[in-house]
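Person: I have long wanted to understand how a fold can be written as tokens. Underneath my words sits a plain record pairing an amino acid chain with its backbone structure tokens. Those tokens are not coordinates but codes from a learned vocabulary of shapes. I should like you to check that the lines agree and flag anything odd. The protein I mean follows directly.
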Amino acid sequence: MTWATVLTFLLVATLPVHAAPVDDPAAADPALRRFTESMHGDAYALDVGRIAYRRRYDTALDDILYLVAPRGTWDATSPAWAPARAALAEAIASRARPRYGEYLPAARRLMNQASLRALTPDERAAVTAFFESPEGRAFMDARARSAAKDAFGVPPGPDAEPLARLQAESKAMLDGLDTLPPAQAKALDDFLESPLWKKVLHLQLVEWADTTSFFLNEVTQEVVREELPALASAVRTAVPGVPPPTNKTYLGTVAMASDGHFDVVVEHFAGLNRVGHYTLRFAKDAPQWRDIASMAPGIHPGDTRYLFFDAGGRVGDRP
């Protein structure tokens, strides 16, 4: 693979995804809406999606910080990293909240379609009746509070209440389930042991969570794509000591082994998605060896350097 080919991979553009008008015939079905609302509807679906998105979001925050200041100039051990990460998270969240609202009709349509596929009308009616009962409401209220606690800190929020309060209230509500009257406790146990609950659980934690986490990722990508300079400015304003930016593009790394061969790792990003990871090995007698060595002057066995390329396609280890 030539360096020109590698750079071509890296420079492939992806088309942005924007919210669009949604035609959702199921939205007019009152029984379906009642079924969804009996399980805290959009709010609960958003929180389980935020939980599912957390790991990907944490990785995205790190990748965005490297767009603010390049790899090789700082990392998670740098004094400015943690406060910059917090400032970035708040800057993203404040911009994500209104944008997610634009995607909500599309998310609802997919949730409705999933609900119609997963359960029959009679099953949805039975689920609605259970979650509208005293024991069902107590269980779902506790479940929703627990989800809000576990989703804390992931956009779009807002996290209107402190985490400590959510933790205390979630524990109190879950503990309260142990004090239900015997008849209600039995009804709850019977429901949780039924095949119907397994279907509902899959609907909530897979179908709904996948839907909302997908749109959360779209919103984050959109914010970064359209407002990266503003995000970087917010971070630099809030946190002194953030390294200077670069006008070069991150390419990957080069490492020299003990026998002198080079391992070059090229990373390809589409937005914030790492969609390609290529490892290329060049022996010391390879024709490209001298060219690679010139990209990382003074590299020694055991060293690893970050690589960047400029607007002219020149590759080097200087950000």
Observations:
- Residues 1-20 have pLDDT under 50 and may be disordered.
- The longest helix spans residues 195-238.
- The CA atoms of residues 149 and 166 lie 5 Å apart.
